[in-house]
Amino acid sequence: MGAICIARDFCLFLLLLNTRQSAALPHNRDTDQCADGSDGCHIDAICQNTQASYKCTCKAGFKGDGKHCEDIDECDIEHNGGCVHECHNIPGNYRCTCHDGFNLAHDGHNCLDVDECLFNNGGCQHVCVNTMGSYECRCKEGFFLSDNQHTCIHRSVEGLSCMNKDHGCAHICKETPKGGVACECRPGFELAKNQRGCILTCNHGNGGCQHTCEDTEQGPICRCHGRYALLSDGRSCTEKDEAAIDPAEHNATTLAEVDKRVKRRLLMETCAVNNGGCDCDCKDTSTGVRCSCPVGFTLQPDGKSCKDIDECELHNGGCDHFCRNTIGSYECSCHKGFKLLTDERSCQDIDECYFERTCGHTCVNSPGSFQCICNKGYTLYGLAHCGDINECSMNNGGCQHRCENTMGGFECHCSPGYKLHWNKKDCIEAEGLPALQPAAKATLNCGKQEGGDHCFLTCQSQVHISSGAADSYTVTCGMPLPCFTEGQKNESGSYCQGSDTSHTPRIKSTVTFKSGMGKCNLKKSQEKLEEGFNNALSDRMLSSTENVQFSFVSLHCSMSSRRLRSRHGRKAGDEEGSFITAEFELDVSLEEVTAESCDLGCVRRRSEKRLRKTIRTLRKSINREQFHLHFAGSEYEMGKKAAPAAAAAAVSPLRPVDLQDHCGTGQMLVNRKCVSCSVGTFYDGEQARCVLCPAGTYQDEEGQVSCEPCPGPDGRVTPRTVGARNVSQCGGQCSPGQYSRDGFVPCVPCPLGTYQPEVGRTFCFPCGGSLITKHNGATSFQNCETKVQCSPGHYYNTSTHRCIRCPTGTYQGEFGQNYCVACPGNTTTDFDGSTSIMQCKNRQCGGVLGNYTGYIESPNYPGNYPANIECNWTITPPPKRRILIVVPEIFLPIEDECGDYLVMRKTHLPNSVTTYETCQTYERPIAFTSRSKKLWIQFKSNEGNSGKGFQVPYVTYDEDYQELIEDIVRDGRLYASENHQEILKDKKLMKALFDVLAHPQNFFNYTAQESREMFPKSFIRFLRSKVLRFLRP
């Protein structure tokens, strides 16, 4: 090589001298063929004009006479092109690349080890140890490394077989059917002859060698490139000193020739010699070499060196959120709640509401987060769950006599001789003030019209509309009559009468109608239907009219769908149908009772018969889609939404009026989005917008189509407000701290020793225990002068005049209260004296265990799990399937010395094969395969600190893919990138991956575009390399 370089330098030196001599001669007029392009030089040659002609010279990296040039394969000569790992020839040049676990040095030839432990601890749970070309995880004393080679399992007792610390396997221990053990090695290692140890090969981290690795029976042997020398560790390489280079390697002759070569380099450098002195790319030009740098580097002032560019300094590297600089490149990442798109720069909000189980009731997505909202009468606990509020636990619900809690509400009841006031809380003497006029009842008119059955349901007041999930809705009219605990039912179970004798006996009936295909949709009828309704009411078009008045009607429309698939596994279509569940309450008319001919039972039977006949007619009407509702001055029909494809085909594009038709009941179009009318307003069908409730009415719920009338005294005019959001804003009522005979002005203050926190009341609550208030008109028990001031978590006992700790299952977050609030739903507290609803926890172990996919979760997740809880799950996959588990994150407090732990074993026995065990918080995701066919999982907490816990999904896969799956989950690159970690935490992406792993034919359900848009390119490249290696014969 040295002789070739010297000869090349000598030729270039002669050429330089010849050029100088020619310049000294008298100048003759000459045509420059090189300039006008009339030369015959090859495209990969340099044309140099001469006095009478021109000369062709092949460019550096090519060989030939200039008329014909061909590429030189630098990788075949000069020690692999100078590349210490891999050399890739390209036209006129070459590129060096490095094995996994190495980065290319700035000189473009050498390869330097990557310290994987610097980022996220390499994904290791305990200790990460960097090695040449790779890394390894190690565990603290008392733990051993699990099969996934990243997490650690606690060795609490001396076990048998693989659970024994002396099982002898260097890497992976597997139990045999006969009870013994069989050892396996991680990818890139070979099992030793003793069947216990593992021998490193060049396939793992280049065998720990920086440059060249050669496998032998004793293990890898490392060697260095010709310009480098092996260090004493037997793995690393360092560049040789110029004086230490073997003369034979460079075929040097005399010191004088070396001096001449240096001078020639100074006179005319060429890329053929030492890459022209360039760190990276070199190009020969007529004036010498020109160095350039690859993308991600910038050329320094010396014109030779390349320096990494910190792309993050300029416009944040084009990243939407975070930018992290790396050697020669950079990496974008996103805020929590966002995911990186396939362009690996843009961030997109994760729609947490995509999964139905995210929230108990309503999920509202927002950029980077989400919010769970509970229906009226329910409250949020555990961050995402909704539980019924026990209003009766808070000052008896404000009821003067008895309070009965119901799901989503409560009801006040009066003692015999009293009746309920209009405020539905106070009780007045039955012979006292006349009760307010009862609300108009719901009327169902059915009959024949143009040869078919038509039905119209009319409701003038107490209308309530609520929207549910999956295009469901509920319409109620009137007030239901509850069945009290002490109430009785007749033999048929349809008659319910409470112990309160003031109630009229009622008949209850619940039926379900099939409404046909399509989704539920309550839509406003056209004018012709309204005209038909008006004519029907006047009996001009209806014959054999049936007119039934109900005290309460509830119509709930819900969906039922069945997914069809073709024999190839592709989606063949969805068959959807809507069903209407109707609940009717009919008062038994006491006026029809006669002592001689028909008693109460006789009248009830007549009413039931009339109701059954009306229901038959109603069923026919619904089947013919001839059932309409009339309330709030508008006409509605039980319509059905068209399928998305059909809607897209029928309307393109949608006009604003069309979009309004797609909005639900009680919604209006705002910026091309359907928005529910807020409280204090209702949807006016004629104006097609939300309007304020008129004076004298109120509305305390969203998405309604009417307002409820405000209560008021007979014969007196009281001031009213527009847009009242609840009954207390109607106006004209007594303010908190006041009362009157009817609850309306004029009012008087509550006397000393009493208080009233609500509006429109007819009495004030006594403080009790001979306590007095600081002044008249007190609004809270806190105004009562107690003996001691009770702190949160306690309530004041007016009998003993002491502060009592709130019992288990209750809490109190305020000072100086005389009650504790019951925990919502089926929750309870860990201990007594609780001060917040967040201490109310559901103790039920969560999860869904399926044959192919499923998940387990700690109780009360994502809220803190309860104390002293024990959960056990068993996953039993179908035959010839194995279990893959992903732990996205787990939050267990480490202060309790492993008092809370999650363990996954083959059986419940402590010495059975353990797959996973942890007792600490671990926010980095980890994936692993089960070491046993079945998996027994236990979660246990003590009475100490608590944490968020976990939600762990799993999938079962065909055991033929065992080698591929284990190769993927054991590779540290799956966890090294922050973006890869976010993929393992993205529920939507994991659902898609699990769907394909469980049923490979479902891969065809996703288009190529969908697949590309789901995952970043780096993740796709990682998986592709694994799959190709697995499929390679």
UniProtKB/TrEMBL annotation:
PROSITE patterns: ASX_HYDROXYL, CUB, EGF_2, EGF_3, EGF_CA. GO terms for cellular component: cell surface; extracellular space. InterPro entries: cEGF, CUB_dom, EGF, EGF-like_Ca-bd_dom, EGF-type_Asp/Asn_hydroxyl_site, EGF_Ca-bd_CS, Growth_fac_rcpt_cys_sf, NELL2-like_EGF. Pfam families: cEGF (PF12662), CUB (PF00431), EGF_3 (PF12947), EGF_CA (PF07645), Ephrin_rec_like (PF07699), FXa_inhibition (PF14670). Gene3D superfamilies: Laminin, Spermadhesin, CUB domain, Tumor Necrosis Factor Receptor, subunit A, domain 2. One of its GO terms (biological process) is positive regulation of osteoblast differentiation. Residues 845-957 form the CUB domain. Disulfide bonds join C353-C363. The keyword Membrane does not apply. This is Signal peptide, CUB and EGF-like domain-containing protein 2.
